[in-house]
Amino acid sequence: EYNIVRPKGYTVSYHASPEMEKHHFGQTHPMKPWRLTLTKSLVTSYGMPFAMDNYNTRPATYEELKSFHASDYLDYLATAPPEDQPRDIDNPEKAGEVKFNLGGSDCPLFHGLYDYCSMSAGTSVDAARKICNGQSDIAIAWGGGLHHAKRSEASGFCYINDIVLGILQLLRCYPRVLYIDIDVHHGDGVEEAFFSTDRVMTVSFHKYHPDTFFPGTGGLDDNGPKSEHNPGAHHAINVPLNDGITDEQYSWLFESIIGKINEHFRPSAIALQCGADSLAGDRLGRFNLQVQGHGACVEYCKKLGIPMIIFGGGGYTPRNVARAWAHETSIAIGCQNKIPEEIPQHTPWREHFIHDTLFPTLEQILGEPRANRNTPKRLQEIVQHVHEQLRFVGH
Ligand code: TV7
Ligand code: CA
Ligand code: ZN
Asked: Taking residues 128-147, what's their average pLDDT?
């Protein structure tokens, strides 16, 4: 009814796993896989599936997971008995035995955990394969983006690093991959995985405070191990931010930094993690970004005209996640100016979208906006530092 048609000259694919969305981390846990169902419902009520190739993903195989993860970790992940009461590892008396950081409150052992993980990874690996074989130019995997997982360790709600698996696929057919992470948290797992290669450059924008904000890494000077023989030196870029950053500041930073990186590094593919916890009003986030500013990052990357995978990630206020990811799906298709701002009447769970619009104002979201602790001077310094790092890269 909105006349959403396939984009001319390129293909967008949408990789989902309805099974994954049914899993629960526990009553009070911030991560709600159901936000993916809410996203898909909004995407569908705007008619966007008509303009894309839609895939229901298979779970990733053990062999695929092993391309990054250690087998003893995977075996434990597959066999550890689920716990009905998540343990409180913040409290040593109640901690019990925790292996591979599995079974604490951040990374609980819930029912169906291995299926959940392999399905999330499946969406990202499938997305990467579609990019590699040229069947897709922009591949969307909102169920992926779990950037904290390590080779042998769960961390920060992430068990399997689907992004690393996806990038490893891309590296089979593209010489250089640029990883960009706009989740409010530092993309530490992806950064670390590619610390020693110059074929992947990682860039994370995040709230940074070493003592009070997870995971505490990603300072401006953390640019990868600076040993003489490490080709990956200078290929980790970090953009540490304070509370309250606005759309205007963020877009300026994003474009100055990604534009310069594109010139120097000349990526042949982009992996963009779109964590929606950087939006204003997120349960865990601290920024003042709106759906427009978040989406502007996707739009800027798309304009570079390079094959791209778009991953999900964090996002703890489901209605905001669904709005942002539906808007970003429309940007991928190029129909963002055709769809009405008003949430369609027939959208399932429409009552969740209070304010009835894709683009609520800051006042609608927050009442009182959060104080902005990012000075123009500091943002200038960050851009300056990144430009200096790039002198060591490419050309
Ligand atoms: C990608 N922040 C993941 C972001 C991972 C953040 C954390 C929580 C949290 C966990 C809960 C919960 C919570 C309200 C918030 C040092 C600790 C402090 C657990 C209570 N409520 C992504 C991970 C971060 C779990 N972890 O980037 C169950 O907040 O700060 C920490 C670590 C130890 C564990 N405790 C918190 O967005 C997907 N966790 C309620 C119930
Ligand atoms: Ca980030
Ligand atoms: Zn996050």
From this structure: 98
